[in-house]
Amino acid sequence: MAPVRYRSTRGDVTGASFEEVVLGGLAPDRGLYVPDSIPTFTPAEVEAMRSYSFAQIAFRIMSKYIPEDEIPPADLEDIINRSVTAFRDPGVTPVVKTGDVWTLELFHGPTFAFKDVALQFLGNLFEYFIDKK
After folding, report:
1. What is the pLDDT of residue 132?
2. CB under 8 Å to 75, separation ≥6 — which residues?
């Protein structure tokens, strides 16, 4: 499978690397970056992930969007593991049943807000790419 590249939703930017997307924020044409293609998982891969931790699932998914030449697997695993250490629940974002309703709890991060899930990871990506330069 060819490495995923990123393009702007407004069409003026194509072929951006993951690092360019992370450090660039919005594309120069003010569009959002999206992957050129969406990687897939086989049914066996999905089934195997049922027993994985949050960090292991995140690694399997993010590995399909981040080329190894940009972030080697061991480094990506470390970034993800550091990103989840500040969460108060070992499941990071547990799914709990209340009556007949299942709820994904996104408030176990350091600021008790849903944004912690993404921003803990993003902050560690910034640190990784800046340290690399």
Report:
1. 87
2. 128
- 115 has catalytic annotation: yes
> What's the rounded Cα separation, in Å, for the pair 11 and 9?
5
Q: Hey, what amino acid is at 96?
A: V
Contacts for 78-87 with beta carbons within 8 Å, 24 or more apart? Answer: 79/121, 79/124, 79/125, 79/128, 80/55, 80/121, 81/55, 82/124, 83/58, 83/120, 83/121, 83/123, 83/124, 84/54, 84/55, 84/58, 84/120, 86/110, 86/116, 86/120, 87/116, 87/120
Cα gap 72→58, rounded to integer Å? 15
Q: What are the b/e assignments for 28-55, b being 16+ CB within 10 Å?
A: eeeeebeeeeeeeeeeeeeeeeeeeebb
Q: Global pTM?
A: 0.89
If pLDDT is split at 50, 70 and 90, which confidence band does 133 have?
Answer: confident
Could you give the CA distance from residue 46 to residue 33 in angstroms, rounded to a whole number?
Answer: 26
Which one from 64, 97, 115, 133 is the annotated catalytic residue?
A: 115
